[in-house]
Amino acid sequence: STSGNRATFDEEKKDCDDNTAISPSRIQKEWPAVHRWSLDKLINDPDLSERGFKCGEDDDGYTIRMKLRYFIEYLQHNKDDSPLYIFDATFDEDKFAKRLLEDYTVPDYFSEDLFGLIGESKRPPYRWFLVGPCRSGTTVHIDPLGTSAWNTLLFGVKRWVLFPPHVPKSVVKGRKLILPGEDDEAIHYFTTILPRIKRRAATSGGKGDYSNFECYEFTQYPGETVFVPHGWWHAVMNVTHTVGVTQNYCSKRNFDEVWLQTRSGRKKMACSWLRKLQEHYPDLARRAKALNRRDRFVMWEDDPEAQRRYRKKMADKERKKREKREQKEKERARKKEKWGDHRTTERRKETHS
């Protein structure tokens, strides 16, 4: 493993083309967020403190939202093993919370954003406002649709681990090393599973799944930006309470991988994107069509059978949601009726006594 990789950002940018480097770098000190995003400032911010931010999901997959001032109070007193974590991608839709966009600018290295051609309302989620308690974090994962990412920390300290794309998923996840009853939450991954992975790699002799094993670990401090190339596995743990911002993006450097994943993962959007590329980046549109011909891939709008499957999938999804709502309404009605019967029985006892 490599610890504390501190290559300069110029070197990092050069190495980005080969998809081989990750390193922290200082951001511009003139960001308003540097002065506005401390916990004390946020909890007293009139535009933000009363706004609800996504901090998790319930067992049914529904979003849990909490007002920022309540979340910061929770953060300051929580002792959870796996705390809630504000990871909000919709703040720009709130007329007050969207002020956060005025507090930072995309670093010059990452200014190219080809998904921007599609428009804000149609593109996938790509930027997140982050507020994390100590011990919270993200489990090891690869960012979606072949995108790369940058992550800037404004407050607190984070611990990172990254694995190059050639390291097998089974190794990164530590699947053969997790004991029954254990989870892969960030705190457990960093304190228990990751050390097991590194010990196994050290004793493997570089054979089997651990051949050419690499992992990069470092600590991120306030004012530093981390670049994560597309296809790299990564996990993050908040060593202290933290506040930050992250964005995923597609540039010419990672276009091929993004196109391959988008055309099948976001079929309708890919059709719109291709038309925009034809207008603004004809060279990339030609490249996308060449990849389609190579793979004999048929775009969604040219495939009636795919459209039929999509409509059926959406209808089934809507039916399941409707059935779930109806089931919940029936359960509430039963509870209400049961409580009513209970109170009626109590009143009768009181009357007879």
From TrEMBL:
Q: Does the keyword Iron apply?
A: yes
Give the top-rank taxon of the lineage listed in the UniProt record for this protein. Answer: Eukaryota
The UniProt similarity line reads: Belongs to the JMJD6 family.
Per UniProt, the ranges with Basic and acidic residues bias are: 8-17
Where found?
Nucleus
List the protein's name.
Answer: JmjC domain-containing protein
Keyword match Iron: yes
